Amino acid sequence: MSYSTADSFPVVTLDDVRGAQKMLTGVSRVTAMEGSRHLSQLVGAPVHLKCENLQRTGSFKLRGAYVRIAGLLPEERAAGVVAASAGNHAQGVALASSLLGVRSTVFMPKGAPLPKISATEEYGAEVRLHGTVVDETLAAAQEYAAGTGAVFIHPFDHHDVIAGQGTVGLEILEQCPEVRTIVVGVGGGGLAAGIAVAVKALRPDVRVIGVQAEGAAAYPPSLAAGLPVAVENPATMADGIKVGRPGDVPFRIVAELVDEIRTVSEYDLSSALLLCLERAKLVVEPAGASPVAALLRDPKAFEGPVVAVLSGGNVDPLLMQRILRHGMAAGGRYLQVRLRLTDRPGALATLLGVLSAVDANVLDVSHVRTDPRLGLTEVEVELHLETRGPKHCAEVNSALREAGYIVID
């Protein structure tokens, strides 16, 4: 590893990333690169998906975790390792430790998805739940390291971790040598920094664009200030990039080498996850879908060919269910309607007949009969409907009104 003569921060180089690639041979997968016809049509240039959601443990995190732990001295390995993570780094550390014969303890936020907790334990780590956001969990893990002598494996703020994540960039250049833009999700910045180191050293003409969730976007204010700045109470469904403060090491690299940081909304994320599932047949978690969300938000802003890095696929099934419904609503394919009708036998059947005639699929029906706003013979009905899109939603509303129903909302 190279070190800067100007300060104490290590400089991650192309040689470091290449060394990490050799170390990971036979450990991590060279993940697939899949073309996306739908996104290509939107962008007006070829768009490819780098499928790190198909990596071992379900995300890119194994790469950096393995390189970091493999570089420990024998006495450090004997002391064991400790990590903190919302799930993906946890699994990466757990598997890397097991492969290398090192004892691991992993701190996870109390709200971490149960499948991620179970998977981390199955890979061989002892799991401890602490805090509600990654930053609180990090503090607990660092305190444990100080008290036990275990080596703390940071999820993004270490040069070995960044070098390991940078192997994704080398694979992108090998699989898509004509690439002009790489889009990657950003939390603490380790993956974006690693990719930028590898790509800019070999192809400085390629643009590297980072993507953050609007509710957890620490990089824009940090870049404006010239140093890492914490954002209070980061909030997003994309737990993999819900980091309140950039790492010191990746921040310096991102500031120097990443061309742009964009932000996306929860609406964008849910729409992107739905698109990945329906069009690409890929299960992707919200953080992993963030590059696709950026493409959907402003498709003409990216010079092609474009590679979007799907960084992970570990999503809680219950969260997936909520996100899919949110994504359907965002795409105009889920309609919630409240209306009033006369409370008499057959009234609901008549209403459902109107909806059937316009091919609206009824998902849920609820009645309100005791509201003081209702007349003696009125009932309020709330319907959750699945539709084909915004145009179909308008047709449904029009059909209801033409049938004489009073649509409240």
How would you sum up this structure, described in words?
By secondary structure, the chain is an alpha/beta fold. The protein has 3 domains: 2-59 and 160-328, Rossmann fold; 61-155, 3-Layer(aba) Sandwich (Rossmann fold); 332-407, Alpha-Beta Plaits, CATH 3.30.70. It contains 17 helices and 16 strands. The chain has a 6-stranded mixed beta sheet, sandwiched between helices. A 4-stranded parallel beta sheet has the order 7-6-5-8, sandwiched between helices. The protein has a 4-stranded antiparallel beta sheet with strand order 14-15-13-16. A hairpin with a 6-residue loop joins β1 and β2 (10-11).
The name CATH uses for the topology of the largest domain is Rossmann fold
Q: What would the average pLDDT be, to the nearest integer? A: 89
Tally the helices. Answer: 17
Distance between the termini: 61 Å
Main β sheet profile: 6 strands, mixed
Shape: globular
Q: What fraction of residues sit in β-strands?
A: 15-25%
Strand segment count: 16
Mind telling me which CATH architecture of the largest domain this is? 3-Layer(aba) Sandwich
Side by side, the strands of the main sheet go: 3-4-12-9-10-11
In the CATH hierarchy, what is the class of the largest domain? Alpha Beta
